[in-house]
Write a structure and sequence with these properties.
By secondary structure, this protein is of the alpha/beta class. Among the domains are: 7-88, Arginyl tRNA synthetase N-terminal domain (Gyrase A, domain 2, 2-Layer Sandwich); 169-264. It contains 20 helices and 13 strands. It has helices at 7-22, 44-52, 56-65, 90-101, 137-152, 169-179, 193-213, 215-230, 233-256, 276-285, 324-338, 353-365, 401-419, 425-445, 457-460, 468-484, 500-510, 512-521, 525-545, 554-577; strands spanning 32-33, 40-42, 73-79, 83-88, 118-122, 156-160, 290-292, 295-298, 313-316, 343-346, 374-377, 383-384, 453-454. The strands form 4 sheets. A 4-stranded antiparallel sheet has the order 1-2-4-3. Helix 5 links the parallel strand 5 and strand 6 (156-160). Helix 7 (193-213) packs across helix 9 (233-256) and helix 17 (500-510) packs antiparallel against helix 19 (525-545). The two termini are 33 Å apart. The model has no long low-confidence stretch (mean pLDDT 93).
Amino acid sequence: MAPVTSLSDSVQQQLASALAAVRPQAAADPLLRRSDRADYQANGILALAKKEKANPRELATEVVAHITTGELIADIEVSGPGFLNITVGDRAITGNLAARYADDTGRLGVPLAAHPGTTVIDYAQPNVAKEMHVGHLRSAVIGDAVRQILEFTGETVVRRHHIGDWGTQFGMLIQYLDEHPHELDHGAGEVSGEEAMSNLDRLYKAARRLFDSDEEFKTRARRRVVDLQAGDAHTLAMWQKFVDESKIYFFSVFEKLDMDIRDADIVGESGYNDMLAETCRLLEESGVAVRSEGALCVFFDDIKGPDGKPVPLIVQKSDGGYGYAATDLSAIRNRVFDLKADTLLYVVDARQSLHFKMVFETARRAGWLNDEVTALQLAFGTVLGKDGKPFKTRAGETVRLVDLLDEAIDRASAVVREKAQDLSEAEIAERGAQVGIGAVKYADLSTSANRDYKFDLDQMVSLNGDTSVYLQYAYARIRSILRKAGEVRPAAHPELALHPAERALGLHLDAFGETVAEAAAEYAPHKLTAYLYQVASLYTSFYDKCPVLKAESPEQVENRLFLCDITARTLHRGMALLGIRTPERL
């Protein structure tokens, strides 16, 4: 099916034609925005008038004279200093929604991007042999939403989970496991993710105690780091045990988060190990990096420490070891030259912004990033408790992610059970998980990524206000109405006049594609959440003011069922792009 042109684009085209007739040599962008005084308001006339040294109100009047009102633009008038207030016809609203409704691909007539590219998105980056905590939440949730939104627009998206699976701590762990080979022996039975991480946590603590108390073990452990970096087969096999054990745990947490994480997309620090020496050689030979006190460094004029001295990016340490910079720069080379990406997106904590600023600038100096290939960090803020401080347990420890998710599911299950009328216990448990995880995701995504946000479960699972539960119940209500309609099917009737609540809902539904495109261009899932909340709010107003099954005529019943159904489809598709389920019954 061909994409459906949005009403705003159609209006924009008519305005552009009228402007061209009035000022053939002039270019203007009559920006359309929703207005309390009309369906759309065009304010680009003011900028054009200033450029042309004309009276804006007179210019606006000339433009109006070249527009023929009809099915699309039912009315247009000049207001204020030169704004154009535009009212769209009822027939155009219903007709456009009917075209979207006829799209059986599930895209609601939304077009693909005109020039899609290839984006590598780096998100969901846990550490091997360490539990995931609340700090891992935002990278996973924001990254997965951005990934799905980009894919919906037609972008080729390559997922990368840059897990922490390399470094000096593995020498300690490998040596300890080598000397205590039965520590990770699970016997014949399968092990759960929680059990896997419990074993690793116990192993890590035991290894750390021995490392701190036994100098001979410490020496052996440090030798193991050298063996690991040199590719010793036995040491690598031991290291692989830790990685495999951790993945059992990672996948269990991501499954609880209702996220699709594929093993092939997990390329950790170790995945670039063979490139590190060459990365350093290329940087040094090109003069981008220089030796300073034995270390290979990149210096920047605008980055200095408290003492006023330059703070370098250390690519290789003076002892020959490699740090995060070498790995990140090697990853850029791989993503640009092997994966052929034109955009590199890093969903990483804002506290790492300086590191990535230096890494990206280094890659630009080396010619790996340029006007055709860009890299940017989608930096996110901190998860705060109700007190506005970083979210901690009562004992002051970092909150385990699985504990946080379990509590959200428990709270949501209680809400579902209280409202449930015909759900079994199994259905309540299933819906509780969908509502609880949806609540956590929505609370995160409804806040601009670069801002901190308060984790307040009471608010998150509330049926009132800007929450995923409110949207999920709106969807379930619509599905209930459609079931009650029985054999009466939704059908569009463009000939019918629309109630103001129907018009407001219809115009907003038509803007779904524009909203997704904007959210994709700006990597801003919060714009999609705001749009969907408005959909649910406008539907509530429509439901209160416009009887559906008891409408005045059979045609009006069908038309309002049609509005209900396309609202449900928009909520379902939009929530899916955020990684949130929409249960049919609640």
